[in-house]
């Protein structure tokens, strides 16, 4: 059980944010996740916003030093580098088209990076950043924010210990209805860039939604290597072409397993967005994010079981993030807090040269970010060629 005690033997990381300002969808999730335990991160500086005045006002309203609320990220990196107490790590929580340039500049400024998904537009950019991060001895982590739920580690432990037998089918879904209204594409600041190919990349929901669920499937089934995808995508709100608001993807894995992903923002009215079902030769597991504390475990020929968070029968890896005891419900911010806890541990280990810990911490790393880019681009290519199989 984890009771918020300090896990790193140093002062909290001095932490800055680019994007994630007052009007953003995701900024508060980062702050809640990072500062939940109050021992790992201290919000020190920010370039929160495209609007410099709004950045400053917002920072001050959070109790920050007005002089450290910067008009843009370049000024922030430059000014912070001059200070003895300058930032050591930065979040990139801007629209997608800025992720690459901000991450690159941050690494060049000697900072660890926590970047939003989808990481960048091209896998080559990911490889270039990987080389730079290695040269600089820094971590680049990706905020697949749903992936910190402890029951996902339970599923991973059951899959890797063979409880399901050989994994045959992976059924994935991230489908909600919040894109049904075309007005949102014009009115919402956060939606406008999501439907603009220059700012979002080659895909809309395949990047915005399905990269989360795809990473979570990798987390649960670390040995399944995706070989090829066949994708059909469409925009039911026609103005979104050539991007999609709905997509179906078939998957082939290297070992013969198969999979399916449905991602959509026009699944009208459905509030249980993410579903994951892993089917093995002997048994299956099922989870959905509307009820993240429970995993359904079905052994062929036996009554099905519900596994609940916080109980002694769970694997030790699932219990280590457990904070509040069984019966009391957790939510998305617990997942974010668990992720940030792992980010702090891995960044601290990297700074101390403890590569063993770096290797063993389970978190969405740069390689997973690059896998997400490959996933999006292979799906988009497949769909645009008329739904043909494309190697990932
Ligand atoms: P948004 O449009 O709601 O907010 C973007 C924020 O970035 C705003 O505060 C804006 O002022 C700021 N910004 C824009 N350009 C900037 C610049 N040049 N410098 C500094 N700040 C700038 O977008 P959002 O929904 O918050 O998404 C931001 C990122 O987070 C995207 O990459 C998105 O995919 C990701 N996201 C992730 C999750 C998750 O669960 N991990 C959830 C939502 C969004």
TrEMBL record:
<dbReference type="Pfam" id="PF01408">
    <property type="entry name" value="GFO_IDH_MocA"/>
</dbReference>
<dbReference type="InterPro" id="IPR000683">
    <property type="entry name" value="Gfo/Idh/MocA-like_OxRdtase_N"/>
</dbReference>
<feature type="domain" description="Gfo/Idh/MocA-like oxidoreductase N-terminal">
    <location>
        <begin position="13"/>
        <end position="144"/>
    </location>
</feature>
<dbReference type="InterPro" id="IPR051317">
    <property type="entry name" value="Gfo/Idh/MocA_oxidoreduct"/>
</dbReference>
<comment type="similarity">
    <text>Belongs to the Gfo/Idh/MocA family.</text>
</comment>
<protein>
    <submittedName>
        <fullName>Gfo/Idh/MocA family oxidoreductase</fullName>
    </submittedName>
</protein>
<dbReference type="Pfam" id="PF02894">
    <property type="entry name" value="GFO_IDH_MocA_C"/>
</dbReference>
<dbReference type="InterPro" id="IPR004104">
    <property type="entry name" value="Gfo/Idh/MocA-like_OxRdtase_C"/>
</dbReference>
<feature type="domain" description="Gfo/Idh/MocA-like oxidoreductase C-terminal">
    <location>
        <begin position="156"/>
        <end position="392"/>
    </location>
</feature>
């Amino acid at each position: 059980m984890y009771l918020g005690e300090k896990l790193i033997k140093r002062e909290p990381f001095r932490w800055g944010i680019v994007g994630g300002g007052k009007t953003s969808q995701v900024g508060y999730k980062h702050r809640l996740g990072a500062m939940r335990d109050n021992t790992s991160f201290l919000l020190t500086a920010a370039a929160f916003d495209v609007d410099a005045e709004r950045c400053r006002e917002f920072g001050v309203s959070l109790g920050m030093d007005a002089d450290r609320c910067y008009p843009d990220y370049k000024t922030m990196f430059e000014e912070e580098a001059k200070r003895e107490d300058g930032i050591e790590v930065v979040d990139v929580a801007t629209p997608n088209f800025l992720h690459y340039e901000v991450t690159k500049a941050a690494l060049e400024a000697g900072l660890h990076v926590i970047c939003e998904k989808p990481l960048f537009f091209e896998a080559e950019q990911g490889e270039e950043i990987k080389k730079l991060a290695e040269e600089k001895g820094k971590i680049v982590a990706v905020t697949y924010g749903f992936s910190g739920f402890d029951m996902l580690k339970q599923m991973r432990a059951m899959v890797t210990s063979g409880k399901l037998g050989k994994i045959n089918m992976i059924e994935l879904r991230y489908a909600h209805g919040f894109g049904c209204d075309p007005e949102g594409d014009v009115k919402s600041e956060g939606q406008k860039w999501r439907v603009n190919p220059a700012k979002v990349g080659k895909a809309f929901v395949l990047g915005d939604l399905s990269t989360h669920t795809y990473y979570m499937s990798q987390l649960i089934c670390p040995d399944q290597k995706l070989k090829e995808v066949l994708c059909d995508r469409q925009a039911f709100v026609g103005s979104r072409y050539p991007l999609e608001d709905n997509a179906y993807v078939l998957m082939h894995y290297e070992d013969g397993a198969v999979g399916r992903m449905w991602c959509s923002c026009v699944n009208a009215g459905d509030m249980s967005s993410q579903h994951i079902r892993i089917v093995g030769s002997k048994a299956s597991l099922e989870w959905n994010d509307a009820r993240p504390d429970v995993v359904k475990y079905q052994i062929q020929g036996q009554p099905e079981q519900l596994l609940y968070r916080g109980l002694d029968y769970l694997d030790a890896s699932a219990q280590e993030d457990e904070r509040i005891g069984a019966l009391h419900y957790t939510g998305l911010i617990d997942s974010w807090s668990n992720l940030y806890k792992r980010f702090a541990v891995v960044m601290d280990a990297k700074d101390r040269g403890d590569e063993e810990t770096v290797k063993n911490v389970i978190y969405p790393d740069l390689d997973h970010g690059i896998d997400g880019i490959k996933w999006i681009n292979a799906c988009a290519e497949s769909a645009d060629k008329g739904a043909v199989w494309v190697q990932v």
